[in-house]
Design a protein that fits this description.
The chain has 510 residues and is mostly helical. The protein folds into two domains: 202 residues, Tetratricopeptide repeat domain (Serine Threonine Protein Phosphatase 5, Tetratricopeptide repeat), CATH 1.25.40; 256 residues, Hypothetical protein af1432, CATH 1.10.3210. Helix content is 72%, strand content 0%. The protein is built from 24 helices and no strands. Helix 2 packs across helix 24, helix 11 runs antiparallel to helix 12 and helix 19 packs across helix 20. The longest helix has 41 residues.
C-alpha cells in the first residue's frame, strides 16, 4: 500500500523501492496470491507512469503467479485481472490484436469469477467494468464501433453496481464519449468529455480526460483543438507534478531534521569518545541528503527520454571537466556539476508521449517541451537546497543560444550566465552521443564536429573550442568514452531499483 500511495503521488523512486521490498517478502512467503497482488499493483503503477512495455512484462509475470493458485473462482478472478492489465497495456503499445484476445479470455474468466464468494460485489463488478471499457477502447481503435457500443452498454450496467466517481466509472464515461466521436458525433462526444473533465475529483482523472480530448480532436483531424488541449495538459501536469515534487522534498527535509535531532551527541559524549565534532562535515552530508530526493525525481523524469537514467550524471561530469578546463577551481566546478544533475527536472511536467515521440516535435509539442526550462527553474526556486541560485540559473537557461535564438528568454552572448553556457555544451554533447527516440546516437568525433560548427551561433565560441579540445584529447586515451565519464558515478538508489525491476521481469523492456 505504501508503494501504491507513493505511485499515486508520482514518487516513482520510493514506489519502486517499496514494490521490490514487498516482492522480496513475497519470495520468502512463497504464496502466489501475495505475489500476484504485488505484481498486479506494480503493473498498474508502471502503466500509469507510462512505462507500458515494462508494465506488460510485469502483468505477464502476475498471470504466471495467478495460474499457480488452486483452480476455482478466485484463480479465475486473478487470471482475469492479469489479462485485463495486459489488454490495457496494448492500448499504449498499439498491439490491438493481442489486446482483444486477452480481453476476450479475461471476459470468460470474469464470468467464473462472479461466483467467488471472497470478493465484494463492488469489487467483482468494478473489475469486470474496467475490462469491458478497455475492450471497447480496443474495438474503437480497430473500427468495430458496434461491438464497442455493445461492450459499453454492458459496462454501463455493471458500473451502476460500483461506487460513483471512481476511476472505473469515469473510464466508462470517457469510452462512451469517444464512441460518439468515432461514430461521427463529434460535438456530442466532446461535450461529454468536457463534462467528465470538469467533474473529475482528482488531478490524474483530469489528465486522463484531457488526453482523451486530444485523442478525439486528433481522430477528427481538428489540429487546433488537439493543440489547445495539449497545451492545457502541459499546464495541468506542470502544476500537479511540481506540487508533488515539493511535497516529497518537504517530507524528506522534515525527516532529515528529525533524524538529525535524534543523532545529536553532547559535547561531553563526543570528547569521551575521542571523536572530533565536525560541524562542516555534518552540514555537507545534510545538504547532500536534502538534494538527493530531487536527483532521484529528476532521473525518473528523464527515463522517457533516456532509459539508462545516467544522462544527468554524465552531463554533470562533462560540465565539471569543461569548468576546470577554463580555469575554474574545483569548488566552482563542483557547484556547476551539482546544478547540472538537476538541469532537466522540469521534464516532470512534459507528457511522456512528447518525450518518447519518434519523430520531430511540431507546433504545440515543441512549445510544451520548451516549458521544462521555466518549470524546472520555478521548482528549484521553491525548495531548500544548497547551491540553489546556480541550480535555478542552469535549469532556466541551459537552452539559451549564444546568438539569441534559444529559449526561454532569448538571451544573447555573455548575458547568458556562465554556468548555463557550460552545461549547455555538456548537455548537447551527451544528447548527441546517445540514442534518442527521434534518432540514433552519433559518434564522439561527429558530435565534436557539430559543436565546432555551432560555435558562435548556439554555443559560446570560447567554451566550445576548449570543450572540443578536451574531448578529443580524452577520447584518444579513453576510447570507451562513457566508461570514462561514468567512472566516478555514484549511482542513485532509484537506478539500482529500476535495474532490479528490469532484471527481474524483462531486459527488453528497458
Amino acid at each position: 500500500m505504501h508503494a501504491v500511495f507513493q505511485s499515486d503521488l508520482h514518487n516513482l523512486p520510493k514506489a519502486f523501492e517499496a514494490f521490490l521490498e514487498a516482492l522480496d517478502l513475497c519470495d520468502l512467503l512463497g504464496d502466489p496470491r501475495h505475489t500476484f497482488a504485488v505484481l498486479h499493483n506494480l503493473g498498474v503503477a508502471l502503466l500509469y507512469a507510462e512505462f507500458p512495455r515494462l508494465a506488460m512484462s510485469v502483468a505477464r509475470a502476475s498471470l504466471e503467479h495467478a495460474r499457480k493458485i488452486e483452480s476455482g473462482a478466485r484463480r479465475a478472478a486473478f487470471e482475469g485481472s492479469a489479462l485485463s492489465n495486459i489488454a490495457n497495456g496494448c492500448l499504449f503499445t498499439e498491439e490491438y490484436g493481442l489486446g482483444l484476445r486477452c480481453s476476450k479470455e479475461a471476459n470468460e474468466l470474469y464470468e467464473l469469477a462472479h461466483l467467488a464468494p471472497e470478493d465484494s460485489e463492488a469489487e467483482r463488478f468494478g473489475n469486470h467494468t474496467f475490462l469491458l471499457t478497455v475492450q471497447a477502447r480496443l474495438l474503437q481503435r480497430v473500427g468495430l464501433l458496434h461491438d464497442a457500443k455493445v461492450c459499453l452498454e454492458r459496462a454501463t450496467e455493471f458500473a451502476a453496481k460500483v461506487p460513483t466517481h471512481s476511476r472505473t466509472t469515469q473510464a466508462v464515461e470517457i469510452a462512451c464519449a469517444l464512441n460518439d466521436v468515432y461514430s461521427g458525433q463529434f460535438d456530442e462526444g466532446v461535450a461529454r468529455l468536457h463534462k467528465t473533465a470538469l467533474n473529475s475529483w482528482s488531478p490524474e482523472l483530469v489528465a486522463d480526460a484531457l488526453r482523451d480530448l486530444i485523442e478525439a480532436h486528433t481522430f477528427a483531424k481538428r489540429r487546433d483543438g488537439a493543440a489547445d488541449y495539449m497545451h492545457q495538459l502541459g499546464i495541468h501536469m506542470q502544476r500537479v507534478r511540481s506540487d508533488h515534487i515539493l511535497f516529497h522534498h518537504k517530507r524528506h527535509i522534515d525527516r532529515l531534521k528529525v533524524g538529525d535531532s535524534l543523532k545529536k551527541t553532547s559535547a561531553v559524549e563526543t570528547l569521551q569518545k575521542k571523536s572530533p565534532f565536525r560541524p562542516a562535515e555534518r552540514r555537507r552530508d545534510y545538504l547532500g541528503e536534502r538534494v538527493r530526493v530531487l536527483e532521484d525525481l529528476c532521473v525518473a523524469a528523464e527515463l522517457h527520454d533516456d532509459p539508462s537514467g545516467k544522462h544527468p550524471y554524465r552531463v554533470a561530469e562533462l560540465a565539471r571537466i569543461l569548468a576546470e578546463g577554463i580555469g575554474m577551481d574545483s569548488n566552482e566546478a563542483a557547484r556547476i556539476a551539482a546544478a547540472a544533475v538537476l538541469h532537466d527536472v522540469g521534464k516532470v511536467a512534459v507528457p511522456a508521449s512528447i518525450l518518447r515521440k519518434p519523430g520531430p516535435l511540431v507546433g504545440e509539442e515543441e512549445q510544451i517541451m520548451r516549458t521544462h526550462a521555466t518549470a524546472g527553474a520555478e521548482l528549484l526556486a521553491s525548495v531548500e537546497i544548497d547551491n540553489q541560485d546556480t541550480a535555478v540559473v542552469v535549469a532556466r537557461h541551459h537552452h539559451e543560444w549564444w546568438s539569441g535564438g534559444g529559449y526561454p528568454d532569448g538571451l544573447v552572448g555573455t548575458a547568458i550566465p556562465l554556468a548555463a553556457r557550460v552545461v549547455s555544451i555538456a548537455e548537447a554533447f551527451d544528447a548527441m552521443t546517445h540514442d534518442r527516440a527521434y534518432r540514433p546516437g552519433l559518434s564522439v568525433a561527429r558530435a565534436v564536429e557539430l559543436i565546432e560548427e555551432r560555435a558562435g551561433h548556439q554555443f559560446d565560441p570560447h567554451l566550445a573550442q576548449v570543450f572540443c579540445e578536451l574531448i578529443r584529447d580524452l577520447h584518444v586515451h579513453h576510447t570507451d568514452f562513457d566508461t570514462y565519464v561514468e567512472r566516478d558515478l555514484k549511482e542513485s538508489s532509484f537506478l539500482k531499483t529500476k535495474r532490479r525491476l528490469i532484471d527481474r521481469f524483462s531486459r527488453s523492456a528497458a
